[in-house]
């Protein structure tokens, strides 16, 4: 597993992280969110997930199928799931037309702190780690784009689940499992498909033994699958 | 236009960039490539495009439609176009199974230099710029993922072209145009579609006045379109 969380927690002196949490509490720059609560983010700030997980979502406002009389694409509020930010990881939201990015607490009791980029100058070593985390996230998104370039929806689906579980999965009896649920609608929104199609194709993948589910609808990839052959 | 090239060239003292080129020549760490030549990249190195443009490509090796008798997905060499890296911009290639990333010279006379990350410690200000460039690229890829989450292929296509031209387009009589050609097969590989479908849908977008082409098959977005309403 390429878990940034564990890597960076291993590399990061515990004291720095504790000092940053103390700093954010002193400056009232930490807050806890309920499941699916929207995070009020602003460009220019860097956010750090202290506990829980954040869900990134993008909204397209470009649409080719608007009113034919007008050249201007109409507003379409289709939201795409863009990934998670786990504990210990940074994120930032830079609003850019014609697409906007948003973030939500994916699980209950998700705690997030924030600072200006120049605040990070107080902890130069940590600043470097944050930037390295963005490099890592960028590489992961390139892999994600690779799978979304596949023509067949079932290939995109399997590639997407593989990447997600590779990054966030935790070992279990079933193999590696996501530690939090993801709805079929959310999966569909990530791979350019619908909830109905995702449900049907997940059935196929399950039949072929390529994925499985555990307990409260947690997605797993068996240990004898692609993941563990790498 | 959100051109990183011009931003970073404006922000970067010309002398630093010249010193880096001199350094790479002294150390034989600069090379010029012909159009579509593959760049021999290695993880752990950071690459900088001095001139021309680099095309990033990803190959999926996960495939759900393999031999049903086996649980193991078979190898499928589907290549997806993942974007450009323009002059003045950095990139890195970190190989990661089950997807691999590759880079090609997109135009003739593309010149690329490379260094280890620790070499960048010689130019701390420039190091910071490189890391900021990756932050920027990461944000762009999130927007790109937003459009690939759209269900209709024509929406993905228009969103993709809009983002690409927004980032790399240059002003012209037609509006904003990509400075280098991109084939319909390459576009299809980025948005999970085929060359044939892309050709058909591009015809529709052209009819609706949402895109146009200039001279040697260069893609343009008219100035009264979404781009310039932002």
From TrEMBL, chains A, B:
Residues 151-224 form the HTH crp-type domain. It holds the Pfam family HTH_Crp_2. It comes from the Bacteria. InterPro entries: HTH_CRP, Tscrpt_reg_HTH_Crp-type_CS, WH-like_DNA-bd_sf, WH_DNA-bd_sf. This is Crp/Fnr family transcriptional regulator. The lineage of its organism: Bacteria, Bacillati, Cyanobacteriota, Cyanophyceae, Leptolyngbyales.
């Amino acid at each position: 597993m390429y878990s940034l969380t564990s890597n960076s927690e291993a590399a990061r002196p515990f004291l720095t992280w504790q000092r940053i949490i103390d700093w954010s509490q002193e400056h009232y720059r930490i807050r806890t969110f309920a499941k699916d609560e929207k995070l009020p983010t602003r460009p220019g700030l860097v956010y750090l997930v202290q506990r829980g997980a954040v869900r990134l979502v993008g909204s397209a406002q470009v649409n080719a199928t608007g009113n034919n009389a007008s050249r201007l694409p109409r507003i379409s509020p289709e939201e795409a799931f863009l990934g998670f930010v786990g504990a210990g990881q940074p994120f930032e939201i830079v609003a850019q037309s014609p697409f906007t990015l948003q973030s939500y607490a994916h699980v209950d009791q998700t705690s997030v702190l924030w600072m200006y980029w120049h605040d990070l100058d107080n902890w130069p070593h940590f600043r470097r780690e944050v930037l390295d985390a963005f490099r890592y996230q960028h590489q992961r998104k390139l892999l994600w784009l690779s799978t979304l370039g596949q023509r067949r929806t079932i290939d995109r689906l399997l590639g997407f689940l593989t990447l997600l579980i590779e990054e966030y999965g935790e070992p279990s009896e079933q193999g590696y499992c996501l530690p939090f649920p993801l709805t079929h609608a959310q999966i569909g929104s990530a791979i350019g498909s619908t909830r109905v199609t995702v449900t049907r194709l997940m059935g196929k993948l399950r039949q072929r033994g390529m994925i499985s589910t555990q307990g409260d609808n947690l997605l797993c990839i068996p240990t004898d699958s692609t993941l563990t052959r790498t």
